[in-house]
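Today's session is about reading a structure prediction critically. Students often jump straight to the picture, but the first step is always the sequence itself: look for stretches that repeat, for charged clusters, for runs of hydrophobic residues. Only then move on to the predicted structure, which in these notes is written as discrete structure tokens rather than atom positions. Here is the chain we will use throughout the hour.
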Amino acid sequence: MASSPLRIGIFGGGIVGGGVYELLKTASSRVAIEKICVRSLSKPRDFAAPSSLFTTDPKDILDNETIDCVVEVMGGTGFAKTVILEALQKGKSVVTANKALLAEHLDELRQAALAAQKPLMYEAAVCGGIPIINALQTAYTPDVITKLQGIANGTTNFMLTKMEDGADYNAVLKEAQELGYAEADPTADVEGHDVRAKLALMAKLAYGTTIAPDAMACVGISQITAADFAYAKALSSTIKLLGTATCDTSDTSSAVSILVLPALVPRAHFLASVRGSGNAVAVTSQNMGPCWYTGPGAGRFPTANSVVADIWRVAMGAFDKSCDPFPTQTNRPIISDFTSAFYVRATTSAADVVQSKSEQHGVSLNSPLPSGPGTEGALAWITKECSYKQIQALLESLKQEGSMPAVAMPLLTVE
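Below is the predicted structure for this chain, in token form.
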């Protein structure tokens, strides 16, 4: 006798919600969509679904005892949290793509899933269509992860790729908004907050420690200019926004170092080849060294594919029966520091101040980089190895002196 289908209710009928519907309407009889809750029934939609599926009343899903699983793809951290908590309390499994909500309320949502003994699935919350969450949850059980690093935001990678090719920041931001990559308010993307939330989730799986997003150093791309790309080109490098987390897990007291920063990436490094809206994350472990997970980091069907993969796992019972979405628990200290050589760029008029303040903070500068086409009005240096804390202190001093904007980025090395 065939088993009953998993009956789901979807919150959100936008880009991802429409993609989930499109993928599931051709799926097998294992899954049945009962309702789609949206804000407005009159809003035009770019997918064709029977009008009887749509509702504006959350109770049509949350109070429907025949619905087994709630799929949250509407975003936000207010009402979405209410929906997820109530769904779990009513004994429904949950699939979500909401990295901001998970990162901000991780421990509370984890406890709700454990109390309900229902799975809380979130593959689509990190890196779109790349199955990085499932890999971190299942593939490294006998291993020890020492480093996570990569590109985890398709919008900023698209913008940096265009800027590398000569586009102006403001022009390429407008293009990203027109293409639907960036929101009308692009702050979460361009200031690194989106990567910060994703990195907090990945680091929790890797190291077991809950990391509040605002506890990590986070710098976006809004201060990157054409001059930075001109200098990067002269150094046979490009610029990428990277999330990085490291930990010596052999020492139970070792801190997790975690940051989101733009970096100068050598052309010979794999990350330099990741262009457009693509994402790529390297998971480095004791047994396997670096393993790369790369693919589409955004878009309707890549993200919807990850949502549907989680729905399918729920339907097949292919999830950890403890229903713990973050099975490793530790309480490590959190730091946002590391040692590297850094690229520092300021205006030519601030050269003397930069050199004076660098000495004050123990940052040793090499000779200024040669000027060239595209670097007019700017001056840049490569430091000798120093700590990021020293660079932060230097930038703060320059800001107080009125010598901003100044930009600093670590130099990635090819391992």
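Discussion point for the tutorial: The mean pLDDT is 93.
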